[in-house]
Amino acid sequence: MFPTFPIPEPTTVWTRFFELVQVPRPSKAEEAAIHFLENWAKALGLEAKTDQTGNLVVHVPSTLPQSNAQPVILQCHVDIVSVTAEGDAHGADASRGLIPTVRGDLNPADDKRLMPNPAGDWINAPFTTLGADNGIGVAMMMALAESNHRPVPMQLLFTIDEEAGMTGAFGLDSHALGLTGKLLINIDTEDDDEITIGAAGGRDVEIQWSSPAATIANGNCYSLTLKGLKGGHSGIEINQGRANAIRTLARALSKLSNAADIRLTKLNGGSRRNAIPDFCMATILLDDAKLPAAQSIIKACTEQWNQLYAGRDNPISIELTQVTGTTKPTSCLSAASTRALLQLLTGIPTGICEMTSDIPTLVESSCNLAIVEVTESGTAKIICSVRGTTGFAADDICDTIRSLVGLAGGSIEIADGYPGWKPRLDSPLLKIAIEQYRSLFATSPKVHAVHAGLECGLLIEKLPGLDTISIGPTIKGNHAVGERVQISSVQKSYKYLLAILEHLK
């Protein structure tokens, strides 16, 4: 899987990144990645420490003689959101480190893939997630440790399981890791002209719902499939107005249930709690006499939604086909239970819930209807990812979902979640970062907060008094097939990070 195209500059960063791409590291299974980094540190003669949670810190001394500079913590997470294209014929599986990469330029006909070009400005994974989130930051940290000029001592903090619960940051043991730095630079921001100084908190909501299964009698089974939407990051890209495949298909099914007594046998959609679902599939029992009406409803729905989402998402298409042979299910939900479940799915808040009043472009709170699994036995599991810049904003959405679930006769479990990161505008580190950006690029960076989960809030809790910022190169489409990272922005961000460290000496 090592690329055949020329390795871009800085070559050490990209060489380490392409090595890392081949290491399996899905969330909650990062052992191979941590082992890879431990072996790398050992080969360089660097001290590496782990804690019981599985986090790793590599201690890197300064190369300057008699340096009395305080250590700076650089931090990234090693896990990735592992997504592979439905029906992919290329055998790509990001969870096993099988990630084919392409270098090229943006393809205006398909923003998930590139036009191959050995000198292009983007690295792309056309059939999986790329793992640039946060692998390119990990590679930058490795390159800094290998540099012959290290102006300050560095404590390279590699955390696990950021994408699926931040359990690495939750369980971080600063004493076991030998963390003593008071300045932290997180490299998980995804636009090279931005400095992030705040982030939303979040929590997961899991809904359990069940209804007695009914025996299939009259009618035939039909499958409905919706796939090919853009999907994307449920925090950073929630403001793009993209369609949620689960909600979209549930709305179509709800309209069908109003016109005919359909009975649901299966419903599956979404793959990751922090990814906007780009596919959903259902199987229903339908009276053949109602088939023309069902086809008409689906056609009307897709036409309406394609007008609504034009320019924001890929065209919506729902395939309706009859299920034949041994795949035909043996039981289903009753018509009444089907309607009740669909009412719950269409009632759950989805997308932006509120905008921040003092920062008009910042999402205050949101909910991602992320995963649904409905079985023939009549059980349903629904997972939502709720985000809010304050605990109150997230609580408000969770209370709404709790009320809806209560009316539907289900049960709900709300995880404690992770805290937000409150912006600190008087940060000395922020002041240095702004000055260095202006000096290098003759313009001012965008200083902002982000509606996504960053570990900084938890790390500040673990290391009181920590002064923190987040920077990073430009990454697009993370958490989805076609994730890509801009080569020139990696060059820019690496140069910028070096300048900040040089000033801190």
- Structural classification: alpha+beta
- DSSP strand count: 24
Give me the CATH architecture of the largest domain, please: 3-Layer(aba) Sandwich
Average the pLDDT over all residues and give the rounded result.
93
Under CATH, the homologous superfamily of the largest domain reads: Zn peptidases
CATH class of the largest domain: Alpha Beta
Q: Report Rg.
A: 24 Å
Portion of residues in beta strands equals 25-35%
Contiguous low-pLDDT stretches (5 residues minimum) are none
Distance between the termini: 39 Å
CATH fold topology of the largest domain: Aminopeptidase
Number of H- or I-type helical stretches: 12
Task: Give the oligomer, counting copies of the same chain as homo and different chains as hetero.
Answer: single chain
Q: How many domains?
A: 2
What's the shape?
elongated
Describe the largest sheet.
Answer: 9 strands, antiparallel
- Helical proportion, percent range: 25-40%
